[in-house]
Amino acid sequence: MSDFLHTALLWLEQASAWLEAFWLAIVAPVGVGLAVWVTVHVAQHKRDARAAAAWTGLVWLVPFLGALLYLLLGVNRIQRRARQLTGGGIDTLESTESVAEDTVQAPQLRVLSRLVGRLTRLPLTAGNRVTMHEAREALHLMAQAVDEAQHSVFMATYIFGNDAAGKPLVEALTRAAARGVQVRVLLDGVGALYSLPSVTRRLRKGGVRVERFLHSVAPWRMPYMNLRNHRKLMIVDHTLGFTGGMNVRAGYVREPARTHDLHARLEGPVVAHLLRTFAADWMFTCGENLTAEYQGQQAPGTVRARGISAGPDADFDKRRLTLFAAIGSAEREIRIVTPYFVPDQTLMAALQLALLKGVKVEMVVPRKNNLRLVQWASIHALKWLVHGGAHLYLSAPPFDHSKVMTVDGHWVQLGSGNWDARSLRLNFEFDLECYDGPLAEQVNTLIDGRIAGARRMDDADFQAMAGWRNVRNALAHMLEPYL
């Protein structure tokens, strides 16, 4: 035994000496090989040349670590397993009532409607009722709808706080599950950690079936940490829907409120689009196949509407192209309310062209953002639009998390998506496009209310800005592909 140990120690000593002498000759080719592999992979799979250049530079300048970061954050491994398992059945909406695009009242928006229809492969549905609500009221309406549910409640959200906003909703979901309602709750794997302890334990204790999207406690088993499900959906009894930008957080219900937001209550055939998206995400997460057929009235209202499901999978780039088309279709005005505005160059160019065309562009962003880096980058981007004639308004606290857009007083977009790289390329988002004058008027009234309490920032304000602030904002904007 002693001879064996002696031999083993001698072998280890010799191996150590050999590695000490030749480690550079071993490590260097491995590092170069990894860098070459990443460069080839980036060139083949990255559509954005700036992102491709950034990743290529990182893996060559920071060997090994750059390759590791690319494997964790840069490789898109997502496939919509739900579509594979169902044979595409979730994408089939034969029961949905569609309407011809030529019935859209504003002629300049008919081309937009046809384009989004081809992009999403979903019909523009007629006969919907869409009502906008501030966050506090929306949370109350959602809990009330759950208490009135008879058959099913499907809910997906990014953040579900275990707090003053989340607990009443948990109690309503628990009561629904206790009376035999099919309750399914989908939380994002990262978003669920915003509230500790997580609300998942409280939900499961109440008999609610809850799953986490792209979640693993082991980082090495979690190759999707940069791809988040940011959608906010609730569908009750396959007839009533809620969607928008609102998470479930106590900041909405405290006195005074710490956050403002908008959410929509939906009735009509467009609820089928919410069902389709939730069913696909649920199948992807846990393999259970849910019925995605709308079972409500065909014409409870007059709004023409369509869901836009976007993400880094088969739905890649649908949101960015929709925004690009909507901006291009505008003839009179574009009004945008968003908490995070760091768009890519294509959307910036589209807005600049709209300004040159004589379209009035109004932007409303928070005066004080909850993400400082994003705020600095946003101000740098907005500077060029203001210089081109856009009207910029900084809304007063509390922080406004609302995400809406109107075009020419007839087209409305609302949903979970922001104007940044994360929403445009990495997140799974759900937006709703609506063609309706009265709804646009309601949303524009809400925008007017925000502008009334906001401070306008014009070209003179940017020129008076301290030099170091300009440099800080410009440096932050260089991170635009990653914000």
Automatic annotation (TrEMBL):
GO terms classed as biological process: cardiolipin biosynthetic process
Any one Gene Ontology molecular-function term assigned to this protein's record: cardiolipin synthase activity
Topology with respect to the bilayer: Multi-pass membrane protein
InterPro entries per the UniProt record, alphabetical: CLS_N, PLD-like_dom, PLipase_D/transphosphatidylase
Record-annotated membrane-spanning stretches: 20-40, 52-73
Gene Ontology cellular-component annotations: plasma membrane
Short name of any one Pfam family annotated for the protein: PLDc_2
Organism superkingdom: Bacteria
Keywords, ordered alphabetically: Cell membrane, Membrane, Transmembrane, Transmembrane helix
Compartment(s) of residence: Cell membrane
Transmembrane as UniProt keyword: yes
Keyword RNA-binding: no
Major place of residence: membrane
Domain PLD phosphodiesterase span(s) in chain numbering: 225-252, 396-423
Protein name: Phospholipase D active site motif domain protein
Source species of the chain: Alcanivorax dieselolei (strain DSM 16502 / CGMCC 1.3690 / MCCC 1A00001 / B-5) (Alloalcanivorax dieselolei)
